[in-house]
């Protein structure tokens, strides 16, 4: 790869004001002599190892050591600041909060502190960690932080970890790596993934969650398609038997004293006690070795033990330790980007100047197999542009917390950079890429090329000799799959703020294939899939590395009861992985599979992995759990994925999830991905909507908006907001939006799209003409909708021949829902988010199943009303580490009241959901509501239920005093 013969050195003053300061940052001429790199202030934080048992309070002694090797005296301030604790975490108390230090040349100061972790309250969740931030600054300029480090005092198992080792192609589960033969050897050194040296290290406190989850993503830089080992000690006073309670993300193998006791080749989200296994323990120390495989997304485990009956085992101790945090993240971060500049931030081990090396990238698509330095990890290689000189940008401050504003960059260009020095043994940080904002009148789009292979002639052994075993998939079904994939690509485009274009090429492979029975996800996970892909692409004159990901749809067939059936499946995703350094997602094509949804969910895993491999693991994982920060104010399935995309692009935030933004401040985050090609397309009015580009899923022409005004109808909602007024979903997972599609889109030429008298810019739901207020009203629950009780909304679908009036009221007893129609539906589903804060947050979520035929579910977490006309369940997402979320203790049988009537005037039902489990019957209470019904007849695609509002999204109502 061509390189410039000599770097250009530029000194830049760090800026804390972000992009607002970029215009005032001067780009200096090349300097005649380099700045002295010798740091005269050296800051370290010493923490001696300390261990304790489970009941210990937990104390950590820390000492900040500052040495002045310069020739002038320094006046410093050492501060210990406690941030707000994590949910469920205990507070930290510090004996020293602030201390002044005067250092003469050659002098050393030691500032000790004693950090105390409060004991967990009886029965309270979490309480196993707290944090304090150590800061050292000059007294004359306290905002200029010389050294910053977070100490996390965590009470958790005394664990050691080693890794990562390779799990490409999910081969790590069966692979035997050295720790399986050697056990724990403190001085051992092995070759890990990519040949990097790995050794046993104590588990850092930052890897212990407030709920006790052991997060291996916080232990290693490489976090995709890898394997790690964890060592723990069980100590007993005599030979005993105990039961291990384990949960893992993903695969799990466990040895006790060298004997394998559990092996689970699974890919799943972790939850407590997913697996339980009894172990025989000898008196004294017993060694546990746990092997945890990782595909993508979350990675870690839950580890606990009991006596087999839910109690603590007598005389058995899982050794605990008090751990400090890991050393700061070495990776450089892009924190703001403009047309001609950017703001960068990174940390180093010691106080001193820091450099950033910047190179212009070659235009066009990044090559997943392109050049990269070994220390850059699994990220893609972006080739630099030949003949372009390197720029060496310097932060001259004496600090370990670097922040640099750079200017003089070209608009709409991709750059590659790294910082030095790095952290620990790393001389530099891993390479990072970003893309400057396009020139005026242009809009940037990340194009990710995806190959979708439909294996249309697959049979599971031993049915290969049955008649018709080699019948390929019909063209009509193949074309239907293409249309479904296009729907999902449009979903990604809309919810990324019209920034991410999934350019899908769909290929039908009619080759007759026989695979083992019950192969997970079909051909894509039966082996040989890459050879099949290479063969298909060779016939097209292409290769796999020309794509950024693959989708493998396997049309498996089995012969059952004298006929062929197509089994369905969930989906699986791995990647990026050899040989093409791209990801793959696979699923089976049989019913009730929904290709739209499986593409959405599984490719979200792929794009999550691409950003993590590019140095940005913060894109929200789409297995929504409140204890790891992945759950927010959204509904199920599609709505959660939409929130993740919108949050990453800056259209909503994790702290403010109600207000839509244009996303311009964070749009750059889409273009730090080191895969794909960044296109710039015409956008004359710079409203974020491309003018007229038929390649893309949406533009101004198809939206119906003007390319000369950002807000065509001047209603306060910009054209981009009109495009994003909904998540763009007609068909959800098991749900379809009732009514004509044209009524489900905001009209950029109509200031009041839904005709409810509220202009779109002031309307929280511009396409839903629904009064958000629910009046207090006493309703007799007899199934008869009283005269004068007006309908709050109407669920109507002409094609399905359904028209249902929805009535809402409340009183001190709870929430009342009434439905009235010409005839009863087959069934219904009602989700109530009692605080309107998200279906996966808090202990305030209630589900009701309606069954006019008297077959509502009963038993387990379901509690039926009299006659089983309806049943209620408590969806409790308020307990850290608990999954699944449904809680059998939420209600009692008969608490839900339901009555229906059928007569000449049609059918009606009334439901009273009692005021409990977060549902507060009081003025001002906000609730989120989702209503779906399955018609008794009428054509609804794939038997989907019809929803009153957009599928999987709840609609917010407020309880008010009286009629309005």
How would you characterize the overall build of this protein?
The chain is mostly beta strands and 964 residues long. The strands form nine sheets. Strands 38, 39, 43, 44, 45, 46, 47, 50, 51 and 52 form a ten-stranded mixed β-sheet that branches. Strands 30, 31, 32, 33, 34, 35, 36 and 37 form an eight-stranded mixed β-sheet that branches. A hairpin with a 4-residue loop joins strand 25 and strand 26 (342-360). Helix 2 packs across helix 4. The radius of gyration is 30 Å and the shape is globular.
Question: How would you summarize this macromolecular structure in one to three sentences?
Answer:
The protein is built from 7 helices and 52 strands. With 964 residues, it is mainly beta.
Count of beta strands: 52
**Helical content, roughly?**
under 10%
The shape, in one word, is: globular
Question: How is the biggest beta sheet arranged?
Answer: 10 strands, mixed
Mean pLDDT: 86
Query: Tally the helices: what do you get?
Result: 7
Low-confidence stretches: 1-38, 122-126, 373-380
Q: Which structural class do the helices and strands define? A: mainly beta
**Beta-strand content estimate:** 35-45%
Distance between the termini: 71 Å
Radius of gyration: 30 Å
